[in-house]
Fold this sequence. Notes:
The complex is a heterotrimer. Chain B is mainly α. Chain B has helices at residues 3-25, 29-49, 53-78. The longest helix of chain B has 26 residues, at 53-78. The N and C termini of chain B lie far apart (42 Å). Helices cover 63% and strands 0% of the residues of chain C. Classes of the chains: A mainly alpha, B mainly alpha, C mainly alpha. The interface between A and C is large, with 58 and 47 residues.
Amino acid sequence: MITRILAFLAVIGFALMLLPLIHQILPMQELTPVAGSYVAKGPDELGTQNIVTAVVVTYRGLDTLGEVTVLFIATAGVGFLLGRRKEKKPKRKSSEILQTGASFLIALIFMYGVYVFMHGHLTPGGGFQGGVVIATGILLIMLADVNMKFNHGLLHFVESISGVGYVVLGLLGLLMASTTTGLGDGFLNNRFLPLGTYGSLFSAGAIPLIYSLVGLKVGSELTGILDNMQE
Amino acid sequence: MTTMNLILLVGLGVLMLAAAVFAVISKKVLSAIIAAGVVSLLASVIYLLLASPDVAMTEAAIGSGLTTVVFLYAYSRMKSDKEDRR
Amino acid sequence: MNITILFGAMLLIIGIWAMLTHKNLIRMIIGFSLMDTGIHVIMVSVGYIGGRTAPIIDKAVSKANALHEVVDPIPSALVLTAIVIGLAVTALMLSYAVRMYQKGKSLSIDDYQETRW
């Protein structure tokens, strides 16, 4: 009983803490100076149409590196806790409709995932969303074929190659960007490749490459989580 | 923001809160998991109305897709008859 | 948008309520995931500016007056990564719960008395 009352008091206290957030915050009228400079300079400096992609990949690329690291550590934790598996009991086969439907849909889902992460600099979407779409496709395979053996070597290979490639592209930006543009350089600077025509697929320097690698890495890591969580 | 959008936003928000309350008070764990997925789906439509399509895509794919599946896998590993207490 | 900040804050409070009152581990983790969604709704609505559109600069929004037509891209970028981390952390919490269930054969925190003070 006493714990109930304490929990109630804690919830009330938290609600009071959040009250100023609701009635005192003023709606923004203009962009903040930092956001304003990203919006004003992003299209010309980096050649991206989607400003969110410019912020995620280049302007705050170091944040994204840390985020991918957190994802990797969490995946490793899940694998450490649940990875040791006894031999699988053969499970009931999934239904005919699911198997046939899956074999039709897999290719489309993978193609959509690749589309989403390759067009991250033009349309909404990018590496994270595309990676999740690919993981969803693999989930469909896992549901359709319950006794499937995973090729873990391939999974780890894709994950490590894309992680290493991401860091190498970031270092290339650090080393090479100033020689091609003369604008100064930084980690994950995308301008060591030519910017191309604004709005076409092969534009925005290295951003499509970087985001594709992020997509492969996120996809393989989430697949690892799903594979470990599965019974 | 037009009036139409505002009405839509309030309706979606009320539905979202209702689903969240259901996720907390429902007796069955399975219903709670599905209700949490519904909360994420409605939140993704709210993000779309707030002009953030990137976040809406991520939330729709992760929040209502993969999170629900991860919860269901964990639940199916722990399922036993006595475990449905609140 | 203040109304969506209100929704997000209420979602956060519902999540905390679930985490504090339930004794079942899975339901506590569901509360955590609700709280996560609430925080994301608050962050996205802080970046919203009334009557503006998404930060994608193409035919609809020209480069010249983009500054006065798009919403803040930074909260979107932060929430984008936060959602993915949220999934990974939720999966980690669930796998701890699975391990506890395999050892102790129970999901209720009342049955784990070893760490009680």
